[in-house]
Write a sequence for this structure.
């Protein structure tokens, strides 16, 4: 519950953005659609049917987390270690917890890895190889594919 309280601050419940930040810190990387879907799932199983708010209470979150946390927490062995390392590296280049790495931070990542681009065009070309969906940013999934570390069992 203390983890939940960290994100809700002085409010009684979490809103969608606080839920995204909490899940992000726990290893879930939710898009806007996934956050909305998760909120919808949690609310659908709400015990108090009179509560029509889109905010989530601690008991609702705990119930959701207990049912879904195995997706990441149940991992063990090299895959789990690789996932933790990948998340740690990814978070370094996503300092605002947006769930993706922007071009400016990709430049820092490349620099830290010793990859020097001769000009902006070379940087953008390099970025385009990671940015598989072409949205101009690198998601965690794109990042882990790029690393080519064994994380998920096929």
């Amino acid at each position: 519950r203390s983890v939940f309280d960290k994100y809700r601050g002085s409010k009684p419940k979490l809103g969608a953005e606080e839920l995204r930040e909490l899940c992000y810190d726990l290893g879930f990387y939710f898009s806007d659609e996934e956050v909305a879907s998760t909120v919808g799932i949690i609310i659908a199983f709400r015990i108090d049917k009179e509560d029509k708010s889109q905010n989530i209470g601690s008991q609702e979150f705990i119930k959701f987390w207990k049912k879904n946390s195995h997706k990441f927490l149940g991992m063990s062995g090299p895959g789990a270690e690789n996932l933790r390392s990948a998340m740690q590296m990814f978070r370094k280049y996503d300092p605002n917890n947006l769930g993706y790495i922007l071009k400016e931070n990709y430049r820092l990542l490349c620099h830290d890895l010793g990859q020097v681009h001769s000009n902006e065009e070379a940087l953008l070309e390099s970025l385009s190889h990671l940015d598989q969906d072409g949205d101009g940013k690198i998601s965690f999934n794109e990042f882990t594919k790029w690393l080519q570390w064994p994380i998920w069992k096929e």
In short: The chain has a mean pLDDT of 80.
